[in-house]
């Protein structure tokens, strides 16, 4: 599947769009980490939960669970929240 990478994570991939495989969000993130070591920890915490400052979207909706099923033809979009003042 196609995965769209936010600017803060470009240091891992070097490009805004990458390919990954997996039947669930967690499996896709594991595959991304195999290809781009360290990226998974930036979006998943030590307890395996989605980090609060990252949002995941696929198939027209937001994903809230790492076990969420994905299809090979989905586009997964990672969005990282911005903060500041």
From TrEMBL:
It comes from the Bacteria. InterPro entries: Beta-grasp_dom_sf, Mopterin_synth/thiamin_S_b, Sulfur_Carrier/Prot_Modifier, ThiS/MoaD-like. Transmembrane segments: none annotated. This is Sulfur carrier protein ThiS. It comes from Thauera aminoaromatica S2.
